[in-house]
């Protein structure tokens, strides 16, 4: 087995009922609408990393990484412990400045992504450790996902005006929409701290989605979630792409869930990208097998997923 958590999840048939009715996309659909067309007709990925390298002292966390993420794609980055997954997500979200290389978000290219302006570029990131406010209701937690839209100082200035009321009404409508979408209506008034962990992860996803990001970065979204909750959460992540239109990049340890959910998977090992392709391509890639097992294998070896 590739890893202790690498069980096969029946994701193809195990989707929970979506809150909205729309056809679910196939991998072929994603390939069709893979890139944003520029005026010139040139195609452009939503996210592109070029030649990214990053070291900590003598440790090369990332080496010469190229990665493209197409619009509407669910793109996973996997790899053994210490492979560089978190470093990569931190570079994309601007928490780390790479030593070399560029990050392009849509039309904008950065040597160091401005983390404080991520939302302006349509990018939202979740963190591995839950960042839910336990004393707040589910609804208020979701509303926090819109807090960046209007500066607090401006809100204070316009308090009580029709504009303030309109912003509040629009925000509440957006929150209700995503609460319904993620099947959280029954718990919307409950304090988040009273909910089980799997539901909290869903609240976090709701808070990330409420701003309708064009690119959603998920940091180990399935960590600590039970098997049944993983299936449900995976269906919600897929629906976030299919019905909310978010392009999704996720780093994840649970390879089983990744293989069932992702359109393409990039594999890191010791900071290098050693494979990049569809789940089937990656699953049978000898370098990937070797990286996970840490030993050389006969050519016919396949990942036992
Ligand atoms: N802030 C940091 N300071 C020093 N070294 C770091 C820092 N962040 C990452 N590293 C090192 O960079 C390498 C890649 O780490 P990273 O956390 O990106 O890997 P990972 O694939 O996310 O690992 P895991 O799956 O265990 O979370 C490791 O050798 C790690 O020790």
Automatic annotation (TrEMBL):
GO-annotated cellular components: plasma membrane
Keywords: ATP-binding, Nucleotide-binding, Transport
SMART domains: AAA
PANTHER family: ABC TRANSPORTER ATP-BINDING PROTEIN, CONSERVED COMPONENT OF ABC TRANSPORTER FOR NATURAL AMINO ACIDS-RELATED
Source taxon at top rank: Bacteria
ABC transporter domain boundaries: 47-295
Name by which UniProt lists this protein: Sulfate/thiosulfate import ATP-binding protein CysA
Gene source species: Bradyrhizobium ivorense
A GO molecular function held by the record: ATP hydrolysis activity
Pfam families to which the protein is assigned, alphabetical: ABC_tran (PF00005), BCA_ABC_TP_C (PF12399)
Protein purpose: Involved in beta-(1-->2)glucan export. Transmembrane domains (TMD) form a pore in the inner membrane and the ATP-binding domain (NBD) is responsible for energy generation.
């Amino acid at each position: 087995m590739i890893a202790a958590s690498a069980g096969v999840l029946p994701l193809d048939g195990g989707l929970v009922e979506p809150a909205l009715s729309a056809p679910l996309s196939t991998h072929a659909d994603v390939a069709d609408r893979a890139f944003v067309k520029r005026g010139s007709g040139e195609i452009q990925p939503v996210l592109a990393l070029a030649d990214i390298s990053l070291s900590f002292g003598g440790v090369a966390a990332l080496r010469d990484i190229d990665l493209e993420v197409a619009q509407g794609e669910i793109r996973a980055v996997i790899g053994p412990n210490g492979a560089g997954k978190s470093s990569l997500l931190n570079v994309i979200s601007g928490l780390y400045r790479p030593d070399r290389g560029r990050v392009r978000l849509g039309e904008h290219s950065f040597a160091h992504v401005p983390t404080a302006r991520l939302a302006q570029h349509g990018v939202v990131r979740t963190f591995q450790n839950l960042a839910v406010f336990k004393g707040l209701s589910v609804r208020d937690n979701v509303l926090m996902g819109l807090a960046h839209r209007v500066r607090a100082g401006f809100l204070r200035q316009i308090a009580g005006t029709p504009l303030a009321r309109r912003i509040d009404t629009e925000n509440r409508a957006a929150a209700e929409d995503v609460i319904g979408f993620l099947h959280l209506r029954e718990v919307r008034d409950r304090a988040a701290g009273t909910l089980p962990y799997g539901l909290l992860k869903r609240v976090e996803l709701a808070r990330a989605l409420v701003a309708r990001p064009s690119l959603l970065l998920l940091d180990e979204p399935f960590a600590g979630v039970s098997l049944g909750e993983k299936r449900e959460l995976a269906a919600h992540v897929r629906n976030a792409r299919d019905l909310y239109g978010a392009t999704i990049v996720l780093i994840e340890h649970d390879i089983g869930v990744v293989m069932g959910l992702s359109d393409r998977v990039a594999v890191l090992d010791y900071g290098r990208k050693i494979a990049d392709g569809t789940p089937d391509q990656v699953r049978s890639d000898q370098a990937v097998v070797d990286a996970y097992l840490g030993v050389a294998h006969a050519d016919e070896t396949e990942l036992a997923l």
